[in-house]
Amino acid sequence: MSSYSIESLEQYFKVYRQSIRKPKKFWGKIAENNFTWYQKWDKVLEFDMQKAEFTWFKNAKLNITKNCIDRHLANKGDEIAIIFEPNDPKEESKSFTYNQLYAEVSKMTNVLREQGVEKGDRVCIYLPMIPELAFSILACARMGAIHSVVFGGFSANALSTRINDSDCKFLITADGGYRASKTIKLKEIADKALEKSPCVEKVFVVKRTNEEINMVEGRDLFLQPLLDEADATSIAEIMDAEDPLFILYTSGSTGTPKGMLHTTAGYMVYTAYTFKNFFNYSNGDVYWCTADIGWITGHSYILYGPLLNGATTVIFEGTPSYPTHSRFWEVIEKHQVNQFYTAPTAIRALAKEKIEFVQDYRLDSLKVIGSVGEPINEEAWHWYNDHVGNKRCPLVDTWWQTETGGIVIAAIPFVTPTKPTYASLPFPGIQPVLMDELRNEIEVNQKMGNLCIEFPWPAIARTIWGDHQRYIDTYFTTFPGKYFSGDGALRDEVGYYRITGRVDDVIIVSGHNMGTAPIEDVINEHQYVAESAIVGYPHDIKGNALYGFVVIKDAGLWRDKNNLVKEINQLIADQIGPIAKLDKIQFVNGLPKTRSGKIMRRILRKIAEGELTDFGDISTLLNPEIVEEIKENRIK
Ligand code: PRX
């Protein structure tokens, strides 16, 4: 029994206590015993919670790809690192051994170096879920460039905003991507984005759909011919522990998306250690996380965490319902998947379909099933547990965020007893606290509070790219000296945490974070819109859906309501992406406001949820009469 693998509840409590009493000693040992370093650290941790400054493994030198790839070559060179399962089941899946992964990543690294990418440069990656996405990310890490992956479902405008924010000089994209029965024209979207992103000097293009695309001379290059010429061995750059590894954008309740910055050593140690424990990974297992690599779940638990453990990880290009609702289960049977990690929204959608879609497949290879992205409701929990896990596999509900880098609260399978809808206990090194509105710590059980973390852990984000003050203001100011997650939670008598949802204006729709203010800004750009307010309401499959209350400027100018709804949603799709489209739009003559002009979202939320009584005291509103009118015309 090593402390790297936690195997009993007793051991968990012991390790947890050690990690809290002597965090530096604890993390120093994990780091020392399980990774390859060019040079060890002078100090395990230096930090200042007020200033949001964290230095883990000070002055250590390493390269994360040496740990993900090279160190496995001696013993595992011929074992499979990546299985690629395409969107269309008729297309053959592909696999890459650790030796092949080394060769592919080396070629990509050499191409990027030859093409002028330098250590510290930002490289935007806008690719579908294909192996080249993994190779590109790892090549950046190998040569010390900072990758910024943008989810393939984002629009040209969203891509451009992200490219400009971190001043990316390079873009790696594809001609197109497959998603269910659709083809997404990625290069066309990228071309449009680049009209507003002059910082990009070179574009590398992967061929996936082989459709005709526009190639700009002197800027755009097809990758394959360059890779064909490249050397299949490469030297990894020597990186400092705190050198940036990647930027990943996440929506906030206001303003532009936040470029969360993760650095090298702490992120590596934490994702590796959590992967091993939360998925009970053993040599030879096949692990599959269905997330997109464009989100943190994909970064930490499709690529880095699994590869750091020498695992076999599946990259899935498709969707849960294409060509049938059996797709997930078919892939599990086909590749004999042992650990399966997905999102409640997918579970809810599949649970609505005929049970035969699941029952026709043998899922007995499964050992552990996981959930991530939003609270998993009781019904979905039981369906997943009974029909997929067969009441045999522990269901780990993992709570974490882009900002935390890795899982922070979840059950360790075969160790922590699970409890539906509870993420359960904190991982070693994590010190959660619940705070009330008056900034007092909540000591009693079963009372909802704001979920904070008191002490740094190795994978905590280091800053928001280019705006450290925003990082401090967003996460370290509401409850001074603590990291504030933006989520609400309660704790039961055993100490298990149940995450109740966001307490700010971020709404989680199908597992994607949606800030309301950025969507409102887009709607307000429409020529006939005076102002708008968006709230969330419960939705059977998506978890939450978006309800927009929109005030029209001049009622005389617009005739066709349906058209306006379409135009507003088109605007959102163009500016942000189809994932942010509104499910319901109600045109109103005004929004309920306080005398100081603040929109009373609480009332709008109740109306959207269909709770039409008990609005509290509305007499102090500037325009109390509007509430009745909105209520009467609400969209059911
Ligand atoms: O509200 C929480 C919810 O997702 C938010 C983080 O979103 P993102 O940064 O996109 O990362 C998603 C994947 C880690 C959190 O603030 N969330 C995530 N996992 C859970 C969850 N809410 C409840 N239970 C979870 N297991």
Verbal overview:
By secondary structure, the protein is of the alpha/beta class. The chain folds into 2 domains: 2-422, Rossmann fold (3-Layer(aba) Sandwich), CATH 3.40.50.12780; 508-632, ANL, C-terminal domain (GMP Synthetase, Chain A, domain 3). It has 19 helices and 30 strands. The protein has an 8-stranded mixed sheet with strand order 12-11-8-6-7-14-15-23, sandwiched between helices. A 7-stranded mixed sheet has the order 5-4-17-16-18-19-20, sandwiched between helices. The model has no long low-confidence stretch (mean pLDDT 96). Adenosine-5'-monophosphate-propyl ester binds at residues 250, 295-297, 371-375, 397-402, 423, 485-487, 499, 502, 508, 513.
In what order do the strands lie side by side in the largest sheet? 12-11-8-6-7-14-15-23
Q: Uncertain regions: pLDDT < 50 for 5+ in a row?
A: none
Q: What does the average pLDDT come to?
A: 96
The CATH class label of the largest domain is Alpha Beta
Helix content range: 25-40%
Query: Nearest-angstrom radius of gyration?
Result: 24 Å
Largest sheet: 8 strands, mixed
User: In CATH, what is the homologous superfamily of the largest domain?
Assistant: ANL, N-terminal domain
Per CATH, the architecture of the largest domain is 3-Layer(aba) Sandwich
Overall number of domains:
2
Strand content: 15-25%
* Contiguous helical run count: 19
What is the CA-CA span between the terminal residues?
57 Å
Structural class: alpha/beta
The total count of strands amounts to: 30
Ligands (ions, cofactors included): adenosine-5'-monophosphate-propyl ester
Within the CATH hierarchy, at the fold level, what is the topology of the largest domain? Answer: Rossmann fold
Shape: globular
